[in-house]
Amino acid sequence: MSEIFNFLIQNKGINISFFFTVLLGFEVISKVPSVLHTPLMSGANAISGIVILGAIILIRSTDPKKLFHSNPSFNCFIYWIY
After folding, report:
1. Phi, then psi, of 32 in degrees rounded to 5
2. Distance between CA atoms of 81 and 42, rounded to whole angstroms?
3. Does residue 15 sit in the same domain as residue 1?
């Protein structure tokens, strides 16, 4: 438990940025009318698809021997699958 508190204290800037980002995102999404919800989600899904394509491209350009050790793209791709 003390490790968690030490991490939070050492990374105050990141924690404050994350907190305000969550609040801002919640406020923006809550103000979207229901008519625009579907196009907004369609755009979000398109962005996710672009990120996955980027991860696949990075995985293909990585040396197969190092794929499991040092490639965060592989981890993101596996997380996306499951």
Report:
1. -75, 125
2. 19
3. yes
